[in-house]
Design brief:
Number of strands of chain A: 20
Number of strands of chain B: 17
Radius of gyration of chain B: 21 Å
Distance between the termini of chain A: 25 Å
Oligomer: heterodimer
Strand content of chain A: 15-25%
Largest sheet of chain A: 7 strands, mixed
Shape of chain A: globular
Helix content of chain B: 25-40%
Number of helices of chain B: 13
CATH superfamily of the largest domain in chain B: Medium-chain alcohol dehydrogenases, catalytic domain
Helix content of chain A: 25-40%
Largest sheet of chain B: 7 strands, mixed
CATH topology of the largest domain in chain A: 2-enoyl-CoA Hydratase, Chain A, domain 1
Largest interface: A-B, 10 and 13 residues
Distance between the termini of chain B: 34 Å
CATH architecture of the largest domain in chain B: Alpha-Beta Complex
CATH class of the largest domain in chain A: Alpha Beta
Strand content of chain B: 15-25%
Number of domains of chain A: 2
CATH class of the largest domain in chain B: Alpha Beta
Chain lengths: 528, 407
């Protein structure tokens, strides 16, 4: 039985707390009375995940027949799956996607289905490399499909590969992948790392075009989602649900398979990263010292490469299949069971130590826009109820925030940073003035379709993710960030956490209440 | 009179060149420039006047000369020893303030009839810069007989003098000559389809004046990008025109964004800006210009280039034009209330530009002649030190001190 997450109040006997700082971490000694939120320990993994998957396919949730009865010879079957952005860090083999798709293919083969196509549902993300696909799907699937052109990556900029299914009653265009929409059965294979993932968002976002995505990936939607982790209070999800229902009403039959993971996030060499500091044993302390000292002498590129090579041991904790909404309701409960931490009341200042990875820099560089998005878009929104920081409070992020970009993965990010943020940091103004030009730029389009680049509009979405936090908090301070990069984004930079806390006092007053969000591993603050 | 005198001395030229490799402006310490007492220049002929400089600017071409980096091309077009200084606001004997138009063209040289270029008002293209009753010298400030702005007196011909309106401060007036250079360059490359995208490389005095001129006189330019290295330059560029300012390393990406260009593996844009104004004049700036200019586009060279090394293959394959923009003369501009273009002297337009754009703010620091080494080093490092135009202050009653005018 795993222990739940909890809130520690710092006193004299509290050891320093580990705070992530990009490809590294620091030990912080917080003022007495500060709170530290610790995530729950990993829940038990499924003992036999392959059997659990088979059972889920045979006993679907909601108004959906068992998968074997849906498979008919001569039918068109499309299996869509989540892309490189999930899970984080990438998991050790076998990946959930491999396990589930192998099971689905077995059922399809038993049913005599031979028109099967796999589609990576990457929306406007970058395409996955062959090595990344092989890792996610396994050698057997990759070798059976990729050489025959049956392993596709969704192309949101190929008009011939898209179909417009109509508009929702809110006037939202629903345009998704043609192969998926015109198949007799669309099986969607999901990994739910956080409560935000899955549900109708899988198809309505993962397989959609820019024309469709812009209806919910915009500033207004982001500002009206309280939070993304609570589907009932998320405008982003409400829009996706309208679209998902229209997709179903258009005759697209979706068989949703959702899996959850426990939070066993780091391999044993980094085990100290997911333990509470006062429970560190001699081995943990030695590991911490060895890793910390080594990192001090390691060039940034090498450190990045080391961290990006980490494969997470997290294990499948649940799997459910069937009708989208019925499945997702159960999935969400599993995610909450693993990640919710009860917290009493908001706080003046929240500290987010930001790790080296976010959904959009797997095997890449965490550029400044992604730092902002991880801190203000993701960590800030890891709440249910109300944000951990009070309105008018201060968010302190810890990350080196280098002025560095991966030119292959993030070409439009460079331009966004150089041109757009140099002009304004106001999401509303940015959306109004710049979004369309970037979204329709032929060069970005070309790179998105043929290389490994995120779509031209993607950095805008990253900035929009920050909109709620920027509205809510009165100040953002980045500890240890590159001065120019931090300034470009309109934030303040502090050299040390002590300096940052002093700067925060200028905004929230003396002796503020402070909370350190000790993440990852993942958690959701359930703030009452 | 007191003057900074530039003499022919090959060892000192060499020393200046070597020293300037280490630090720009160091030629003032080891080169052939020295502060000395010289006789006031004689009036060469009727129609000439004695001018007592009040402010005299330090120009990029002056710095190149002092640092021994000027091309030997100029050797037959100057006469030694000379007193530099061609950006001059001064005072006539009667007290009237004048701005000097320094080109020593046919009229000043007593040559009549004038050469075809001078006859058409294109005095910057005068063919007689080494002839007539003056010694060689393409401008005042490079001729041994006329004196120059870096002395307490010079002589100038009627054709070189422009009365300064009372509303003009000395700082505004000293900007008229560099602004005229910029204005002349900014008016080149017209006749496109309209909706042009233009780039200005460099945001020193010349670059910023070009930005101001383009913003006011080129309605055909729809998008203007300015390459500025230093924060104060970036601020001023944005102030002077509706433009996008980029840092040097961001230029190609900036132009690509604005023109919707694609990019070849080499980094070469497939499209680009129809006009590029190179206000620096180095191999690097010209190469940058050629990287971002559109096929069939034009690169206007405003900065004095000297010997540069560039790959011209793209210029050939993309049919790009490079044109020089030297000094000023007569410009064809739209007349008031009429669409027909009328000829106007560049200096007349420049007075209007300086007033309209408030270019006097570009004068950042004034020095007495006695602190000339300091002044020249300040000018050589102007951008880095947050300055734009550095000038000598020769007004006799002024209590000299360096003043950062636009911190």
């Amino acid at each position: 039985m795993s222990r739940p997450g909890f809130v520690l109040e710092v006193d004299r006997s509290t050891p320093p707390t580990l705070c992530w700082h990009g490809e590294g971490f620091k030990l912080l000694r917080l003022p007495e009375g500060s709170r530290i939120l610790y995530p729950p320990e990993p829940v038990d993994a499924l003992k036999d995940p392959d059997d659990a998957i088979r059972q889920a396919l045979l006993h679907p949730e909601g108004d959906m027949a068992p998968l074997p009865t849906l498979m008919k010879a001569g039918m068109r079957l499309t299996i869509a799956f989540d892309d490189i952005s999930l899970p984080l860090p990438p998991m050790e083999r076998p990946d959930n996607r491999q396990r589930v798709i192998e099971a689905v293919l077995d059922v399809a083969a038993e049913g005599g289905v031979d028109d099967v196509v796999l589609i990576c549902a990457l929306a406007l993300h970058r395409r996955m490399t062959p090595a990344e696909l092989r890792h996610a799907l396994g050698d057997r699937i990759y070798d059976a499909f990729a050489p025959h052109g049956l392993l596709l990556q969704h192309d949101a900029e190929d008009p011939s590969a898209l179909v417009h299914l109509g508009r929702t009653d809110h006037g939202e265009d629903v345009e998704i992948n043609r192969r998926a929409a015109e198949s007799d059965l669309l099986v969607y294979v999901n990994i739910n790392l956080v409560a935000m993932d899955g549900g109708h968002k899988s198809v309505a976002t993962g397989l959609a075009s820019y024309k469709s995505l812009r209806h919910h990936h915009n500033v207004r939607t982001m500002q009206h989602s309280r939070s993304f982790m609570d589907q009932t209070r998320s405008e982003l999800h409400t829009s996706n649900w309208r679209m998902g229902r229209l997709i179903a009403a258009s005759g697209v039959k979706v068989f949703q398979i959702e899996t959850t993971l426990n939070t066993d996030t780091f391999p044993s060499a980094f085990g100290f990263l997911q333990k509470r500091e006062w429970e560190w044993g001699a081995r943990d302390r030695a590991s911490f010292l060895a890793v910390s000292k080594s990192l001090e002498r390691t060039p940034d590129r090498l450190a990045r490469s080391i961290f990006q090579s980490i494969k997470s041991p997290h294990k499948m904790s649940s799997v459910q299949a069937g009708e989208v909404e019925a499945v997702h309701a159960i999935t969400t409960e599993h995610v909450y069971r693993q990640q919710l931490v009860d917290v009493e009341g908001q706080t003046d200042v929240v500290i987010f130590g930001l790790p080296y990875i976010c959904p959009y820099n797997v095997n890449s560089i965490m550029n400044p826009i992604l730092v902002a998005c991880l801190g203000l878009g993701y960590f800030f929104n890891l709440y249910r109820g109300k944000p951990l920081v009070r309105p008018g409070g201060v968010l302190i992020l810890s990350h080196p925030t280098p002025w560095a970009f991966n030119p292959v993965h993030h070409p439009s990010y460079i331009d966004f940073f150089e041109e757009v943020l140099a002009d304004t940091t106001d999401p509303v103004e940015i959306e109004k003035t710049y979004e369309e030009r970037f979204a329709t730029d032929d060069w970005y389009r070309h790179l998105y379709r043929t290389s490994y680049a995120y779509h031209g509009v993607h950095p805008f979405y990253m900035w929009y993710w920050c909109a709620h936090a920027l509205d809510h908090a009165a100040g953002v301070i980045i500890v240890g960030g590159d001065t120019k990069a931090v300034h470009r984004m309109g934030f303040k930079r502090a050299s040390t956490m002590r300096d940052a806390l002093e700067m925060a006092e200028d905004i929230v007053g003396r002796d503020p209440s402070i909370t350190h969000f000790h993440c990852p591993p993942m958690m959701i603050a359930d703030v009452h | 009179m007191k003057a900074l005198l530039f003499e022919r001395s090959l060892p000192k030229f060499a020393a200046a060149r070597v020293a300037s490799e280490w630090r720009s402006g160091s030629g003032a310490r080891v080169g052939p420039l020295r502060l000395t007492d010289v006789d006031e220049p004689d009036l060469p002929a009727p129609g000439w006047h004695r001018v007592r400089p009040r402010l005299s600017g330090i120009c990029g071409s002056d710095l190149a000369t002092i640092d021994g980096r000027a091309s030997r091309y100029f050797e037959p077009l100057v006469s030694f020893p000379f007193v530099p200084g061609h950006e001059v606001v001064g005072e006539l004997d009667g007290g009237a303030r004048v701005v000097l138009e320094p080109v020593l063209r046919c009229a000043a040289r007593g040559i009549d009839p004038p050469c075809p270029a001078c006859a058409q008002g294109q005095t910057n293209r005068c063919r007689n810069l080494a002839f007539g009753h003056l010694k060689p010298g393409l401008q005042t400030g490079y001729c041994s007989l006329t004196g120059g702005g870096w002395g307490t007196a010079l002589v100038a011909h009627d054709s070189q003098l422009h009365a300064v309106p009372d509303s003009f401060s000395d700082q505004a007036a000293v900007m008229v000559e560099p602004a005229a250079c910029a204005l002349h360059g900014a008016l080149l490359g017209r006749g496109g389809a309209g909706h042009e995208t233009a780039v200005v490389i460099g945001a020193g005095t010349l670059g910023l004046c070009t930005v101001a001129a383009l913003g006011r006189l080129r309605p055909d330019i729809e998008t203007l990008l300015v390459v500025a290295k230093h924060p104060e330059q970036r601020r001023l560029a944005r102030d002077l025109a509706d433009c996008t300012v980029v840092e040097p390393g961001e230029l190609a990406r900036g132009v690509r964004r604005r023109t919707g260009s694609l990019v070849l593996d080499s980094g070469q844009l497939t499209g680009g800006a129809s006009l590029v104004f190179d206000c620096v004049g180095t191999s690097q700036s010209l190469s940058s210009a050629l990287e971002v200019v559109a096929p069939g586009g034009t690169v206007v060279l405003l900065g004095m280039p000297g010997q540069v090394k560039v790959d011209l293959t793209g210029l050939w394959q993309r049919e790009v034009s490079i044109t020089g923009a030297y000094a000023y003369g007569t410009e064809l501009v739209a007349g008031a209330g009429t669409e027909a273009a009328v000829p106007r002297r560049t200096f007349d337009l420049s007075f209007e530009l300086v007033a309209d754009a408030g270019l006097e703010r570009l004068v950042s620091a004034l020095y007495p002649l006695t602190r000339y080494r300091e002044a020249i080093q300040h000018a050589a490092a102007a951008g880095r030190r947050g300055a734009t135009k550095v000038a000598f202050d020769l007004r006799p009653t002024r209590k000299f001190r360096t003043k950062e005018m636009h911190a």
